[in-house]
Recover the amino acids of this structure.
């Protein structure tokens, strides 16, 4: 078929060879770029700007007043405290479990590997409900805790459990691929040189997974700061006591105090923006460390 | 390589310290002294949080020299009652209506004798009114106007909200009583159902609580009319964002109860202060504060308390047969509203 | 690959290894498996009839249909726009590209309830955009398009982030070969590029679909509460919890759970097959 065909194609074929696709035609390319960037702006940027605009619409004074209120500070304190627990517990778990998954062989490993992802798939409301079923005053475990005077649901422990649940997979998922890539040569070398497990972990394993770990920890923090549905179901929404930042936002919008909701949202959005910068940095480091 | 790890460790350490400092600052004062956990319905929030609770704290201090601290939760009445029934350990329950309080009695949280006090367990009165947009462009004057085509109506979800029960009961009750009077004692239930059905068809959104519904109307500009508590409208006026409203000729008297939750006060050992708080609500001082937030005093005859204009044909739940009967007739499995609602959207 | 996964040969698993394994598996079982078993057991304990009644409630059925339909609409839009966005980010240079690339993940970082608030502020009836749309009789907030919009926002990164790396590694030689042989641009795209991207696109689509099934925070503010109209399954479950119908909430939750698990498992199986084929 044809040299003939080849000949005719040659004229614009040059263009194709250089960029080699339909959108390489200037019009197609511009159209595609406009649509994509426009879509991005409409979907992501414009709503963000709308929030900032509304938050500052009344000037800084109402925002300041909202931020100075006791409830506001308590809500953020609550969120930070819960996040701290989630970070500590799930980072330790995540690193340990990643080590187990990568370096050990045992029956049911594939299943365990799959189970880790479940919290990503389960609706936050369902998560909350599961915790109520289990830890509520007439739940399987809650019944016994209740007689001991320990309250989980409608109190802080329930909210911590909910956050632990939704943030469980992050570190495992972030560390496993890095560990796999890293292999065991260095670890075994360290063993041969007589280093103990602990020393090997701190000196060899941890440095090798650090960027993957840092990246996934940021994702964990972001998720934990923003968790809403699961926490809402298990909290009694006691002002200043079991009210987190996101619950405070919801409470503010649904009531007559939108300024507080705007201020809190603005802070949460700003924090997530900085997290994003951190993630980007860590991801680049991760890539660089993989290539080296 | 090592310095990088240290840098990273430092980063997270700093983050951790920041987090700890963040919560350290917020951890409440001491655990000593009296504490009341309040489980209230959503619309009393301002009156309680801003005025009643501080006044009571002062009162308690003068009386006993002790400090009382409050932990407050405000939620839709039905949802709050459900939470308390299923284990939320509020010491004092402030609910929108007796039907919700009965749930707590059934769950053995509140004593069956809760209503045996001079006010019958009731702490506030109000009436059901209709808020509308400026200048009343849709010409809303009575319940039947809510059924006109093109009128966007807001009332909350009676599954969770006590306010919604009052709203729907008011519409139901006015039609029920009118047709009963016209029919010489036997009401035409089909006509009542028809009104409810046409109003429900106009409902734009059923928020979870009365407060959310009001906020949808006034803050977010949803709908043309909002069926709500009179005190919600008066509160908006107090806050400098007045909303125009009409009081329909025949409307329902809202009676909202409060009670001590026995199972909680036994656990927390604070019955004394909880009982005192309850009594404070119906004291002249308490009622004055509530009145300044738009609630009608329970004792309308007291010369010490402000007067509110009385609607022409004010009826009560007792006129409709009481909570249990309305519960079955309207919201029960075969109730009027239940059947209208499940037909909707088919 | 396999040799990397199993490091020290199975034989010399020491006691510390066993302890570590036991503790992590214990935590996983306690945190994830136990709650699911509890939910499954409690929702079925009242008998199959009660379960079916709860699931077949007209409102529950409508909520489930609405959830699946809005999720599917979102997936279709996301697949097209996500692939196009990944393409533009990988193949073209333009000012601000780096910033845009970093901001793609914003929806993962922003709390869902803040997302909901943003959309309400932007499209609500009292906003500028909402007023304009309203005059054309088109409403976003408290309506189904609003739900799709919220879902689009929260799942924006999935397709892009799955397709991007594949596109980066995609061997241009094949495309160029096709082009030299005279295949038109479109043909090259359909016959060569798209099949290579398909697994990544599918992965992104499945992830966003799974996310959309359970989405709550952003949808609750945008959808309001209109049973049979804008109540998705997570909202329905929440409403039933709040109004004290635990049986209904648990039964419908179980269905939603099964649906999300189905998505997750099929994605896992698909990826396994895909990576096997890739490997040989």
């Amino acid at each position: 078929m044809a040299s003939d065909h080849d000949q005719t194609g040659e004229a614009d074929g040059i263009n194709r060879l250089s960029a080699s696709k339909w959108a390489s035609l200037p019009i197609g390319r511009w159209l595609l770029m406009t649509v994509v960037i426009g879509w991005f702006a409409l979907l992501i940027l414009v709503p963000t700007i709308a929030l900032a605009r509304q938050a500052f619409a009344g000037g800084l004074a109402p925002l300041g007043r909202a931020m100075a209120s006791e409830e506001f500070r308590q809500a953020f304190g609550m969120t930070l405290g819960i996040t701290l627990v989630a970070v500590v517990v799930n980072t330790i778990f995540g690193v340990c479990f990643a080590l187990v998954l990568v370096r050990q062989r045992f029956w049911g490993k594939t299943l365990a590997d799959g189970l880790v992802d479940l919290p990503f798939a389960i609706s936050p409301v369902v998560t909350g409900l599961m915790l109520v079923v289990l830890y509520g005053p007439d739940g399987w475990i809650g019944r016994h805790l209740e007689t001991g005077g320990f309250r989980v649901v409608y109190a802080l422990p329930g909210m911590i459990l909910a956050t632990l649940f939704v943030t469980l997979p992050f570190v495992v998922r972030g560390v496993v691929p890095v560990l796999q890539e890293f292999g065991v040569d260095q670890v075994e070398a360290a063993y041969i040189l007589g280093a103990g497990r602990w020393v090997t972990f701190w000196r060899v394993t941890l440095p090798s997974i650090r960027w993957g770990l840092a990246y996934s920890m940021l994702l964990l923090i972001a998720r934990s700061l923003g968790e809403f549905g699961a926490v809402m179901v298990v909290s009694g929404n006691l002002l200043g006591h079991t009210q987190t930042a996101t619950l405070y936002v919801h409470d503010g919008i649904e009531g007559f105090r939108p300024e507080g909701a705007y201020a809190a949202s603005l802070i949460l959005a700003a924090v997530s923006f900085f997290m994003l910068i951190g993630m980007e940095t860590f991801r680049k480091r991760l890539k660089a460390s993989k290539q080296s | 390589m090592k310095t990088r790890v240290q840098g990273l460790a430092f980063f997270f350490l700093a983050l951790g310290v920041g987090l700890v400092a963040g919560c350290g600052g917020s951890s409440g004062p001491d655990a000593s002294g009296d504490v009341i956990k309040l489980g209230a319905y959503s619309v009393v929030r301002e009156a309680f949080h801003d005025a009643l609770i501080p006044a009571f704290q002062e009162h308690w201090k003068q009386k006993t020299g002790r400090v009382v601290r409050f932990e407050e939760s405000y939620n839709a009445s039905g949802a709050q009652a459900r939470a308390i029934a299923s284990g939320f350990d509020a010491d004092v329950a402030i609910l929108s209506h007796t039907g919700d309080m009965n749930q707590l009695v059934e769950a053995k949280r509140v004593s069956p004798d809760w209503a045996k006090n001079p006010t019958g367990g009731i702490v506030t009165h109000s009436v059901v009114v209709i808020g509308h947009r400026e200048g009343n462009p849709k010409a809303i004057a009575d319940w039947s106007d809510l059924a006109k085509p093109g009128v966007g109506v807001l009332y909350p979800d009676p599954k969770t909200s006590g306010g919604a029960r009052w709203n729907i009961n008011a519409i139901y009750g006015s039609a029920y009583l009118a047709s009963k009077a016209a029919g010489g004692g036997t009401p035409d239930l089909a006509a009542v159902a028809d009104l409810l059905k046409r109003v429900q068809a106009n409902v734009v959104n059923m928020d979870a609580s009365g407060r959310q519904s009001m906020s949808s109307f006034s803050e977010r500009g949803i709908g043309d009319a909002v069926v709500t508590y009179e005190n919600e409208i008066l509160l908006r006026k107090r806050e400098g964002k007045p909303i125009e409203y009409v009081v329909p000729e025949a409307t329902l008297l809202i009676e909202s109860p409060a009670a001590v939750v026995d199972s909680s006060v036994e656990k927390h050992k604070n019955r004394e202060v909880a009982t005192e708080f309850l009594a404070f609500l119906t004291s002249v001082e308490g009622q004055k504060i509530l009145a300044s937030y738009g609630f009608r005093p329970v004792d309308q005859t007291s010369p010490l308390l402000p007067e509110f204009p009385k609607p022409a044909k004010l009826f009560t739940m007792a006129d409709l047969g009481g909570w249990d009967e309305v519960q079955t007739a309207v919201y029960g499995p075969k109730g009027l509203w239940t059947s209208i609602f499940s037909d909707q959207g088919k | 690959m396999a040799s990397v996964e199993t490091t020290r040969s199975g034989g010399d698993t020491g006691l510390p290894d066993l302890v570590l394994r036991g503790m992590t598996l214990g935590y996983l079982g306690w945190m994830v498996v136990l709650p699911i078993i509890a939910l499954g057991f409690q929702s079925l304990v009242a008998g199959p009839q009660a379960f079916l009644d709860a699931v077949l409630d007209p409102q529950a059925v409508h909520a489930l249909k609405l959830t699946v339909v809005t999720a599917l609409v979102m997936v279709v839009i996301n697949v097209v726009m996500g692939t196009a966005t990944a393409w533009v980010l990988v193949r073209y240079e333009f000012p601000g590209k780096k910033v845009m690339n970093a901001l793609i993940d914003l929806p993962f970082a922003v709390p869902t309830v803040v997302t909901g608030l943003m959309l309400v502020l932007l499209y609500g009836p009292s906003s500028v955009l909402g007023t304009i749309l309203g005059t054309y009789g088109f409403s976003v907030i408290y309506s189904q398009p609003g739900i799709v919009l919220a879902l689009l926002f929260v799942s924006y990164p999935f397709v892009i982030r799955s397709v991007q790396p594949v596109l980066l590694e995609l061997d241009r030689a094949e495309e160029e070969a096709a082009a030299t042989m005279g295949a038109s641009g479109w043909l090259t795209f359909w016959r060569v590029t798209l099949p290579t991207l398909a697994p990544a696109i599918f992965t992104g689509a499945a992830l966003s679909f799974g996310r959309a099934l359970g989405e709550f925070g952003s949808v609750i503010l945008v959808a309001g509460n209109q049973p049979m109209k804008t109540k998705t399954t997570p909202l329905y479950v929440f409403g039933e919890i709040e109004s004290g119908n635990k049986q209904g909430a648990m039964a419908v939750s179980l269905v939603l759970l099964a649906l999300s698990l189905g998505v997750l498992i099929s994605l896992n199986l698909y990826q396994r097959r895909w990576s096997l084929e890739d490997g040989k």
Summary: DSSP finds 15 helices and no strands in chain C.
